[in-house]
Catechol 2,3-dioxygenase (Salinicoccus halitifaciens), 281 residues
Amino acid sequence: MNFHKAPVNYVSEVTINVSDLKKSLDFYQEVIGFKVKSQTGKEAELTADGKTTLLRLVEPSNPINRHRTSGLYHFAILLPDRSDLAAFIKHLAEKDVRLGASDHAVSEALYLDDPDGNGIEVYRDRAPEEWSWNNGEVHMVTEPLDVQDVMSTYKGQPFNGLPEETVMGHLHLHVSSIEDAVKFYTEGLGLEMILRFGPQAAFLGFSKYHHHIAVNVWNGVGAPKPAKNSVGLNHYIIKYHTEEAVEETVNNLKSLGYIVEETPEGTFSEDPAGNRVKISV
């Protein structure tokens, strides 16, 4: 099953604020392997296939870097194949990039930061048939990645940027309250609870994906919203599979008392912690 195209709803694109667009563009091209799709002034759209925007970079006026707020924990880039993860590991080793690595049972993941400290995960999924479920919750762990076993799939290909089939896999957010966030994402946006880590974190997905959105309170319960010009999350897009699904989502949000903004750029709402989402078809 493809969890990142219709008829499944999914996170298609993330926009982040950066402090220095040129420095970030160098990093995202040379280290991560994106291509620049377009650049206008202080904004740039990045792509893997040359057509689809996955990441948008914005340099706001007078950018600041505040910590311990709600906002971005990491966005996650999903590679199509395990051998692509192996090629990426080799590429990062050659670039001498510091990173973390974990096996989550459902996936194998690498973690690194951009020049502003924005968190990035690059991962590959195990086949859904290999996932374990217990009382309706998916089994996820955080264990050391068997890098040697991943590297056994390396096909000797040079790293020439992200593979064309790369997609935005998921988004993990700092929020101020797990309960408030879960209500917004389930009752408002229509995701399902996939896994709950006590009072600290929750993993939510469409169509039984291990998570399209995760939320945590690791920056503190009641963490304040970041300033508009703060580096980190600007907004993200959830693609719904039909106009009817968009309409239903907007009506759900309004009936629950959430603000929905109709702008020339599209339809936006905000979770209770201030994380902004564009609702698109």
